[in-house]
Write a structure and sequence with these properties.
147 residues; mainly alpha; 7 helices
Length: 147
């Protein structure tokens, strides 16, 4: 099933479309680096083991808070391309209700064309980052995550 059949949140859909228009893998990397530069700085105090994404070669951290029923993410990575992936996901999923985030399937990565450009470990890292963001959304939905 392609993500064309699954409706993506509008901001995420827009980002996927942006990547689809870049046919050259180098342009896709440049787009990721552009996202990395746009990512707001994450406080060092938030870089705890609890916020660390497991299964990533790079150091990746994700925090989430719930504001007015919507999830607000922050993230960072010590690798620029991975930081771009974090920024991509944050921009696409920020400010959505937890229930909407939990419905997003990871197959949208196929549509970006990034999966073929990423090393297997980076593609796996992207999936792990995405899963952690969904897990935090689920925590808010169930009322088990405070922030």
């Amino acid at each position: 099933m392609s993500s064309a059949e699954t409706s993506l949140p509008p901001k995420l859909e827009k980002i996927v479309e942006r990547f689809k228009r870049r046919s050259n893998p180098k342009q896709k990397y440049e787009q990721l680096l552009w996202y990395a530069k746009k990512l707001p700085a994450m406080p060092e105090a938030a870089k705890t083991d609890n916020n660390k994404v497991k299964g990533c070669v790079s150091q990746v951290y994700i925090t989430a808070s719930l504001e007015n029923g919507r999830v607000c993410y922050q993230g960072d990575s010590d690798a620029q391309l991975v930081k771009g992936l974090v920024a991509f996901l944050i921009e696409g999923l920020n400010d959505l209700p937890p229930e909407e985030i939990m419905q997003v399937e990871p197959d949208f990565i196929e549509d970006t064309g990034l999966k073929v450009s990423l090393t297997p470990s980076r593609a796996n890292g992207f999936f792990n980052i995405f899963q952690m963001m969904k897990k935090k959304a689920l925590g808010f939905s169930l009322g088990t995550l405070e922030h």
